[in-house]
Amino acid sequence: MKSLFEAHRSALESFLEVGDMAILFSGKAPKSTADAHYSFLPNKNFYYFTGCTEEHFILVMLKTDKGLESTLFIEKPDYDVEKWVGRKLTREAATEVSGILDVQYIESAISHVGKAVYNGKVERLFLDLEKLNWDENDSPAASFAGEFSKRYPFVAIKSLHFILSELRVVKSEEEIAFVQKAIDLTHKGLDGILEMLKPGVFEYQIEATFAYKTRMNGAERCSFETIAASGGDAVILHYVENSKKVSDGELVLLDLGAQFKQYAADISRTYPVNGKFTERQKEIYNIVLKAQETVISAMKPGVPYEALNRICQETLTSELLQIGLIKEASELSKYYYHGVGHYLGLDVHDIGSRNGLLKPGMILTVEPGLYIAEEGIGIRIEDDVLITEAGNEVLSKNIPKTVEAIEAIMANR
Q1: What CATH number is given to the structural domain containing 267?
Q2: How many domains does the chain have?
Q3: Confidence (pLDDT) at 107
Q4: Structural domain for 98, as ranges
């Protein structure tokens, strides 16, 4: 895979000028309690350029008249610590993973940067600052920016975020394959849920089934906290309590995904707990499905990103007016109160501008929903869609989503 990270660094070079330095941090695991920490997840921008998944690493890249010079700083091996937490990446292994030849220990990182500044090689410093006001951000990059600006006030500090958005929003063939694998694993997890779903099971058992099925088939982890919302709680967009027993006649809204090679899937499906949709549930479900299919049919290169939201809202409004759920268009927000999708990649909500046009290589979710609290109905249908030269490809097309397909599967268990 190192050729992928080499290609990403090469692409960054074209955005930088001679004298530009870019620094990224892998991050560190946040403390949970006492001497315990939460599981570590690498900063995805750092991973994008290195392929390294360990904490306390730093990547320094400097554009010179000879090209982009990359130096990776890693932790020095501590054999006593390794008895507790396992072996750390060696310098040789870090080169094999990232393709970066210059790998040093992290103790020399500050002097490395300082030497470049004092030698007049650095005119601008680019850091991974998502907020424009980096002094209000508590990330490692923001902390470094504060110290650096005090020591070297003559070097301009810039945000790398906008460049990263341009780079990451268009995926390579290898990246698309990783997302596809994550989706395929998610499919296996959903198959497992369809096999066990019935009145009387608990939402946490649904969540556990998905985690088990995906991990058993090779997923690294779930790409985000699984939503398994039954009945009236399905109107809560980010319901993650997953504690209730599901009941006969209810729907369960699932929003979940597997992660593979750090790339995420993000799929939503809504299933009838007893295997059969009621007529009302079917009516609302098919409206959501129509909105989704209408949006997907419009997705192709050159279409404004924001047009997708308009198409979704217009479709839902028209359908809800027809069935009498709303009396005027302004009432749609009572039953539909989120955007139709987002970019997908290393992050579930991947970075990228929402003000531009769709381009080949972009992957977006399409996830309209309707949430009718007074009827205890919440429905969302979400697929992952690749923009292609010819239009689009629904990467999750093999995951059943029609009323007929879902009922047939549940009837034949």
Answers
A1: 3.90.230.10
A2: 2
A3: 97
A4: 2-168
Provide the pLDDT for residue 135. 53
Distance CA 186, CA 221 (A): 11
Say what percent of the chain tops pLDDT 70: 98
pLDDT at 129 over 60: yes
**Residue 81 scores a pLDDT above 90:** no
Q: Residue 325 pLDDT more than 90?
A: yes
Provide CB contacts within 8 A for 231, sequence distance 6+: 244, 246, 247, 250, 251, 252, 376
Same domain, 27 and 163: yes
Question: Residue 100 gets which letter from DSSP?
Answer: -
> Tokens representing 41?
């997840």
110 and 189 housed in the same domain: no
Residues with catalytic roles: 35, 238, 255, 266, 338, 342, 349, 367, 371, 380, 382
Same domain, 163 and 224: no
pLDDT tens digits, residue range 148-199? 999 999 999 999 999 999 999 999 999 999 999 999 999 999 999 999 999 9
